[in-house]
Design a protein that fits this description.
This protein has about 260 residues and is mostly helical. It folds into two domains: about 150 residues, Ribonuclease III domain (Ribonuclease iii, N-terminal Endonuclease Domain, Chain A, Orthogonal Bundle), CATH 1.10.1520; about 80 residues, Double Stranded RNA Binding Domain, CATH 3.30.160.20. Helix 3 packs across helix 4 and helix 9 crosses helix 10. The longest helix is centred in the N-terminal third of the chain and has 22 residues. About 30% of the residues are buried. The C terminus is likely disordered.
């Protein structure tokens, strides 16, 4: 097990307390939040349960911050921005900026690895948020998330989120039935160096026309486009809703 220097640990917690203006939970709980499963055989002495709690606490805190900061934003816009902020990539970036990797206890199985997975740091950050929520409640948790995610939140508020086909279809689905569309993978084709994916959008049992794409993401976006074309012909969606950053539904189907 990797040993975490006490002075480093105290400096790490002091940094967060100074940033957020809150008193963090007892050191024992924080150390548990910063103990990876590889470092401890007893599952109740590592951070997995706190990570489970912190995942939801982080999501709620980010949702609250976005709701307050963007009072006129559509639900789809808020959902897209939240997805960026609660992603493992964003959490790992925040963890690194705070110096969390230096105070994360890991086991011998990870010793000597020069590049640990970013997800490992993001998970530990979630566990830390979970520990704060568990012992201190939501308000201190919210203040910590607001403080440590400051640069990421500012960046996501400053830029616009492209309302692409998937977002537009999601907004229609939520208006129509308060549920989300699904994307069904029907198959793959082509040689390994030029693989294509075949996808269909489905909502409340209704299957829309299929689409092919060079990646799963592109195929899903083009499948959403096919669904929107059908809905527009039926009058379920107004043409004014379909301004897609210079890309109309009747135009050429470029990269997604």
């Amino acid at each position: 097990m990797t040993d975490v220097d006490d002075a480093e640990f105290r400096a790490f917690t002091a940094k967060i307390e100074a940033l957020a203006g809150v008193e963090l939970p007892a050191p024992e709980l924080l150390r548990k939040a910063l103990t990876h499963a590889s470092a401890e055989a007893d599952e109740f002495e590592n951070n997995e349960r706190l990570e489970f709690l912190g995942d939801s606490a982080l999501g709620l805190a980010v949702t609250h911050l976005l709701y307050d900061a963007l009072p006129t934003a559509r639900e789809g816009d808020l959902t897209e921005r939240r997805a960026h902020l609660v992603s493992r990539r964003a959490a790992a970036a925040v963890a690194r900026r705070l110096g969390l990797p230096d105070v994360l206890a890991t086991g011998r199985s990870l010793a000597g690895k020069t590049a640990l997975s970013p997800a490992l740091f993001g998970n530990a950050l979630e566990a830390l948020v979970g520990a704060i929520y568990l012992q201190s409640g939501f308000e201190p948790c919210l203040r910590v998330v607001s403080a440590v995610y400051g640069p990421e939140i500012e960046a996501i508020l400053a830029r616009g989120i492209e309302r692409n086909e998937k977002m537009l279809l999601q907004e229609w689905a939520q208006r129509a039935a308060s549920t989300l569309p699904n994307y069904v993978m029907l198959g793959q084709g082509g040689p390994s160096f030029a693989r294509a994916f075949h996808v269909r959008a489905v909502h409340e049992g209704r299957a829309f026309p299929t689409a092919w794409g060079r990646t799963k993401r592109q195929a899903e976006r083009l499948a959403a486009r096919e669904a929107l074309r059908v809905l527009r012909r039926e009058g379920a969606i107004d043409a004014s809703e379909l301004a897609l950053s210079g890309d109309g539904l009747d135009g050429a189907e470029g990269d997604a």
